Amino acid sequence: MRVLPTTLIRSKKGLTTVVVAATVAVGTVASIGAAAPAAEVRRAEVSLNQLVPVPVEVRTAEGAAFELRSGAQIQVTAGAPGATDAGNYLSTLLKPATGFGLPVKSTTADRPGDGISLLLGGADPRVGAQGYELDVTRRSVVIRANEPAGLFSGVQTLRQLLPVRIESATRQSGPWTVQSGHILDYPRYAYRGALLDVARHFFPVETVKTYIDNVARYKVNYLHLHLTDDAGWRIAIDSWPKLATFGGSSGVGGQLPGHYSKADFREIVAYAAARGITVVPEIEGPGHSQAALASYAKLNCDGKAKELYTGYVPSPDGLLCVRKAITYKFLDDVIREIAALTPGPYLHIGSDEAHSMAPEDFAYYISKVTPIVRKYGKKLIGWQEMVSAQPGEAIGQYWINGVNNDEVAAAAAKGTKFIMTPADHAYLDMKYNDAQPAYPLGNVWAGTTEVDDAYNWQPDTELPGVDESAVAGVEAALWTETVFALEHIEALAFPRLLATAEIGWSPKSSHNWDAFAERLAAQGPRLRTARVNYTRAGGVSWAGCS
Ligand code: TNX
User: Whose CA is nearest to atom 4 of ligand 1?
Assistant: First the structure.
């Protein structure tokens, strides 16, 4: 149990709101076990119609289910490393519960024999670069995609179609059935992100890996790491070492200090990639930068180092000195080193909430940082505040209504794309409700967010002027001012992350709360078996006991 301070934070309408002291309890996780009856003709335990996110097309077939047996192989397209990676991932996922050491074997056959096959090429063109087709018969499971990303998505689908106990970390008994039928599936948006704030409180590599494991289940394909903020700088930079060693030595409330070494960061990037996820690093500026200003006196306008910041709200003193040349030497060095660590295409520059900065200073900063990101070969993402200050090559990230709606709409009209993260739907750090005694974590400034609030919105109608053509994708954001441990991360993210994930993946025409709530309920036992500390949030008829 831990008591958080009463404090002031931002509100939905830009006003300030009082957050009452919150008592934080660490949730418990139960496990389940069930044995499937033996039968002559196997019937599957899980229906093809139970998936989250719901696929584009599902056809169930009459007749016997596929049964995965111990002698099976995972056959992958020869000469395609991406297919081998997806095969290895699947083999690793299936091993603990089945006890099967499913070998990954190359094949040149277009229609390999029995068992599981992950094939690159020849999928229906409608599935594009990220979709897949899945065919299940009594004898085989074939996942076909045009690109490795599609195979990774297909692997997650197959995983959800196996009995719940496949999620157990210990050996369970079969049969390991999959319902026969056909699925054709592809995402509505190419970008489906999950933001984890490791700056307010630092979380070790293992925690990040566990989060990666669990967001990957729902076809999230980007992990946005918020690496720097007022309260902490969390990544080693060789040319400015004190950023991490000093700037990372605290956190909100003075708690959970730490930073990633470059090796740690590479490990996270590789772990994510092996699950089909690309890391997007965020280096915040010009606001939210007190950790840097505390680490180096010369970054400050007056040449004096700031104190380390431990507050819960944005620091009023956390603004970079935008007219000083050293600021851009610093950014060039940091962005060069971060870009070199990042195989993915994107680098996020923050840019939110520099409210007290003169607009021309803010615009100057954005005009200086944009070419640096370009020079190091990355595409720029920034919070919505920067869209009118930069030349239109960037992706904006929308998070708050009423701050600069007209600028966002004008940028969209000129072709700027947006990742949609509306705080009142997609901020996983908001409390579920005010009354839930078992769940005291979280912020409330954007309103409480039950699962239906997380689900009932559309990226293309959220903001006038931002229509479907301007939407690059969606992201669920987990800010960690009130979060101290993996249990808290999971209790806030699950199940609401599934809502954002489904909005990002599934066709708009399939959007239906009742149908979603039913499929979501079926994820409860799966998450519980996987030892994910999800919240049995209201409005969903969760199966089984808590
Ligand atoms: C707003 S989202 C922020 C974050 C906070 C979050 C808390 C954004 C661009 N700024 O710095 O952590 O609210 O909910």
Answer: 479
Q: Bridge partners of 224?
A: 195, 280
pLDDT interval class at 392 (50, 70, 90): confident
Ligand 1 proximity of 352 Cβ (cutoff 6 Å): yes
Ligand 1 touching residue 398 (CB < 6 A): no
Taking the mean position of all CA atoms in its chain, how far away is CA 212? 7
Those residues with Cβ within 8 angstroms of residue 329's Cβ, 6 or more apart along the chain or in another chain: none
Q: Where are the alpha helices (DSSP H) in 305-383?
A: 325-341, 359-375
Q: How far apart are CA 222 and CA 241, in angstroms?
A: 28
Nearest to 17 by CA among 485, 326, 445: 445
Q: Rounded to the nearest 5°, which phi and psi values hold at 430?
A: -75, 145
| Cis geometry, peptide bond prior to residue 286 (ω within 30 degrees of 0) | yes
For ligand 1, say whether the CB of 479 is within 6 Å of any of its atoms.
yes
State the closest ligand 1 atom to the C-alpha of 421, by its place in the atom list counted from 1.
2
**Going by DSSP bridges, is the β-strand pair 228-229/115-120 parallel, antiparallel, or unpaired?**
unpaired
Distance, in Å, from the CA atom of 31 to the CA atom of 525, rounded to the nearest integer, reads 8
Residue nearest to atom 2 of ligand 1 (CA): 399
The end-to-end CA distance of the chain, in Å, is 20
383 CB within 6 A, ligand 1 = yes
306 to 255, 353, 417: CA distances (angstroms) = 19, 19, 36
**The token pair that represents 186 in the structure block:** 């592809």
Q: Does 2 have pLDDT greater than 80?
A: no
Label residue 392 left, alpha or beta by phi (over 0 means left) and psi (-120 to 50 means alpha).
left
CA 183 to the chain's CA centroid = 24
| 418-436: average pLDDT | 93
Where do the H-state alpha helices sit in 99-232? 148-161, 205-216
Interatomic CA distance for residues 440 and 187, integer angstroms: 34
Catalytic residue list contains 353: yes
Nearest protein CA to atom 10 of ligand 1, as residue: 352
Of residues 133, 147, 167, 353, which has the active-site annotation? 353
* Pairwise CA distance, residues 481 & 10, whole Å: 13
Residue pair 340/36 in contact (Cβ under 8 Å)? The answer is: no
Backbone angle region of 415, left / alpha / beta, with phi > 0 → left and psi within -120 to 50 → alpha: left
Q: What is the pLDDT of residues 438-480, one digit of tens each?
A: 556 899 899 999 999 999 999 999 999 999 999 999 999 999 9
- Whose CA is closest to 533, among 524, 544, 545? 524
How does pLDDT run across 489-536, given as a tens digit for each residue? 999 999 999 999 999 999 999 999 999 999 999 999 999 999 999 999
Tokens of 100: 């099967």
Out of 13, 352, 355, 387, mutate this one to test ligand 1's pocket (max ligand atoms within 8 Å of CB): namely: 352
Ligand 1: distance of its center to the CA of 381 in Å?
A: 16
Cα-based angle 129, 209, 230 (whole degrees, multiple of 5): 100
Query: Torsion over CA of 174, 179, 180 and 181, rounded to 10 degrees?
Result: -150
